[in-house]
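Every protein is a chain of amino acids, and every chain bends into a shape of its own. The protein below has been through that process, and both of its lines are reproduced in full.
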Amino acid sequence: MFELIRDAIAAHQTIILHRHTNPDGDALGSQIGLKHLILANYPDKTVHMVGDGAGRYGFMEDSIMDEISMFPATCARQLTDSRVLYRKCGLT
């Protein structure tokens, strides 16, 4: 399993890390930790963290989410992060 994740990270220049809505400390800590782990091993990668606000966990270092725009907002369905929209692009 580790090899599959490592290969997926190695194959892409930009990595976007999602997590569940209304995050608790575990969700934020995992997301933040994974970002730092990726950057420590792949310093040339661009890593974004997305999700709703950290709320009461806003004191955690690096808990501010990135504002990114990935796809046009037409013909879209919501992902776990309600701000991020996915366009089908003809895929089934």
Notes: The two ends are 26 Å apart (CA to CA). Residues 25-41 form the longest helix (17 residues).
